[in-house]
């Protein structure tokens, strides 16, 4: 099925400007075509196109599914961007396909990348959402300094920091998941890992140090490992 982003109202759906252009000019869609539209908030509508103009494509809702394939958990991954953007983009695409709800980019002591293009990131996530036919669009947050991030109020979250310091206490992620947290936040560090000061600072703000296994992973692999583990552990 063709999936588009747009506004979903009581009886009608309106594709956003970019999606309207794609439908009308690229796909050369016509009135009467049946498409699927999501607002990225869990609503998935089957829509019959009734109007095509320069500004917007509109249609009447034939069928509406609310909370389409909603998961029973909320996963927020905070990750230090990799030096090579292709590796980060790979993670974003695959994590969206597997199931992730929120992504924050961290600026840490060992970070190799100090800036990101948030608009490009959002497009990658949107594209992956459409390709995997999901009705929930992950929330993307801009680059945030580590010390500012850990001070935020993540009410109701089980907060974890994944690190490789063997002499600092760590709990296997699978053990954390045995408690069936409804909301979980996992921080993934850069190639040089989090600094010891950062690990201790996170623990002071009630983050639990976790291990993702005996292997030493690249940043994007560690993040994907965490997403897979949560998906399997909390389904």
UniProtKB/TrEMBL annotation:
Belongs to the RNA methyltransferase RsmE family. GO terms for biological process: rRNA base methylation. Residues 71-228 form the Ribosomal RNA small subunit methyltransferase E methyltransferase domain. It catalyses: uridine(1498) in 16S rRNA + S-adenosyl-L-methionine = N(3)-methyluridine(1498) in 16S rRNA + S-adenosyl-L-homocysteine + H(+). Coiled coil: none annotated. Specifically methylates the N3 position of the uracil ring of uridine 1498 (m3U1498) in 16S rRNA. Acts on the fully assembled 30S ribosomal subunit. GO terms for cellular component: cytoplasm. Its EC number is 2.1.1.193. CDD domains: RsmE-like. Keywords: Cytoplasm, Methyltransferase, rRNA processing, S-adenosyl-L-methionine, Transferase. NCBIfam families: RsmE family RNA methyltransferase. This is Ribosomal RNA small subunit methyltransferase E.
């Amino acid at each position: 099925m063709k999936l588009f982003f747009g506004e979903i109202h009581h009886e009608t759906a309106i594709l956003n400007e970019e999606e309207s252009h794609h439908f009308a000019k690229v796909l050369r869609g016509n009135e009467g075509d049946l498409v699927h539209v999501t607002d990225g908030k869990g609503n998935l509508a089957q829509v019959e196109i009734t109007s095509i103009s320069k500004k917007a494509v509109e249609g009447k809702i034939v069928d509406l599914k609310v909370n389409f394939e909603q998961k029973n958990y909320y996963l927020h991954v905070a990750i230090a961007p990799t030096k090579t953007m292709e590796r980060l983009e790979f993670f974003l695409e695959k994590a969206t396909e597997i199931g992730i709800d929120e992504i924050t980019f961290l600026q840490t002591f060992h970070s190799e990348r100090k800036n990101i293009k948030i608009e490009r990131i959002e497009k990658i996530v949107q594209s992956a959402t459409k390709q995997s036919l999901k009705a929930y669009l992950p929330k993307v947050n801009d680059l945030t300094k580590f010390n500012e991030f850990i001070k935020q109020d993540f009410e109701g979250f089980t907060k974890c920091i994944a690190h490789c310091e063997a002499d600092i206490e760590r709990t296997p992620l699978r053990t954390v998941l045995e408690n069936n947290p409804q909301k979980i936040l996992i921080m993934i560090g850069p190639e040089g890992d989090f600094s010891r000061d950062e690990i201790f600072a996170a623990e002071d703000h009630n983050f639990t140090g976790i291990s993702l296994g005996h292997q030493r992973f690249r940043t994007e692999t560690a993040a994907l490992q965490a997403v897979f583990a949560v998906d399997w552990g909390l389904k």
